[in-house]
Write a structure and sequence with these properties.
Layout (H helix, E strand, L loop, with lengths): L13 E4 L3 H10 L4 E4 L5 H6 L7 E4 L9 E4 L2 E5 L4 H4 L3 H6 L2 H8 L3 H6 L2 H7 L5 H8 L3 E6 L2 E6 L4 E3 L2 E2 L7 E8 L5 E7 L12 E8 L5 E9 L6 E4 H5 L6 H17 L10 H21 L10
Parallel strand pairs: 1-3, 2-3
Antiparallel strand pairs: 4-5, 5-10, 6-7, 6-10, 8-9, 11-12, 12-13, 13-14
Length: 306
């Protein structure tokens, strides 16, 4: 498939379109160190065009039907590894059970990218400021990783080694699915981000919140995740955020802002990511959106997600 690369930069030796997970893994094993998995190819193909990719053989798993399924199973919403953001926008199960994912899909700029980019890709690429990955971490989601020895579910938050480096080895492993615990009545999730700078499609700060309310409208549980380009995504639960001072909503909000600000100051280069006012605006926006959804039981996604 030489037309994938410009003339004079053809380092690609083979393009293999797998029809099953087992077939893809067998190909990876047969060409160990030379082959790499792609789903949408949103990161790999540009690298190949720039002659920067190390792999000389690519295994396309985007046509594997088992990886394109969305289903509810054992109190989880299970999303196949080849489900694109364009598919997410069309899936009624996702709109019903996890509308926050529609918010994220709407943010993926341009219909061509939506048709190619996947939630699984956001895990493998390990960007510290991936809207999809940050939201999945807040939701306590797991990824199913398959290789020659079988498959296992792992917490997504544990797959980030450092920005841009994932524990998933795409030259030997495949993210076959993502599973997210289903939210019940008076539980919800939301995401907010700082609008990307002009000419940049990535945000410098992302926050996602999942929470549940008691009958008296007080918080039952809360999970917040934050991501920035130079940081590994970090998540906190209600006990960690309240810090012993969360007797009122105002106390909790102050503690949330201080906790996230302190985390982002470590290793910060002094850009907008470390600005306390910006941090407060983003993390509290995600918190308030999740509260509103939990209180109203709304299944509509929020068009103003940036």
């Amino acid at each position: 498939m030489v037309e994938l690369l410009p003339e004079g930069k053809r380092s690609l030796r083979d393009y293999y379109l797998a029809s099953s997970v087992e077939e893809a893994i067998a190909y990876l094993s047969a060409h160990s160190g030379e082959a790499q998995i792609i789903g949408g190819g949103t990161k790999m193909m540009p690298m190949m065009q720039r002659h920067q990719a190390l792999a000389t053989r690519i295994v396309d798993v985007s046509r594997i039907s088992a990886l394109k399924r969305v289903r509810v199973q054992d109190n989880y919403l299970v999303i196949g590894g080849a489900v694109t953001y364009a598919h997410i926008l069309k899936k009624d199960l996702i709109a019903t059970h996890m509308p926050v994912l529609l918010d994220i899909a709407q943010l993926v700029s341009g219909s061509p990218l939506r048709r190619e980019a996947t939630l699984a890709g956001s895990i493998v690429h390990a960007r510290g400021n991936s809207e999809g990955a940050i939201t999945l971490i807040a939701l306590g989601a797991e990824a199913e990783i398959a290789n020659l020895t079988g498959a296992q579910w792992m917490p997504i938050r544990a797959l980030f080694v450092r920005p841009g480096v994932s524990r998933v080895n795409s030259s030997a492993e495949i993210v076959t699915a993502v599973r997210i615990p289903l939210l019940e009545a008076r539980q919800a999730a939301a995401m907010a981000r700082r609008s990307p700078e002009e000419g940049n499609c990535y945000s410098s700060l992302i926050s996602a919140v999942a929470l549940g309310l008691k009958d008296d409208d007080s918080l039952d549980w809360l999970s917040m995740a934050v991501g920035a380009p130079t940081h590994v995504p970090r998540a906190w639960n209600l006990r960690e955020l309240a810090n012993g001072n969360g007797e009122t909503d105002a106390d909790l909000r102050e503690s949330v802002v201080e906790t996230v600000s302190s985390h982002l100051r470590n290793g910060s280069s002094g850009d907008a990511t470390s600005d306390r006012a910006q941090i407060s605006a983003i993390v509290l926006k995600a918190y308030e959106r999740a509260l509103r959804r939990a209180r109203t039981g709304s299944s509509a996604h929020i068009n103003s997600a940036p």
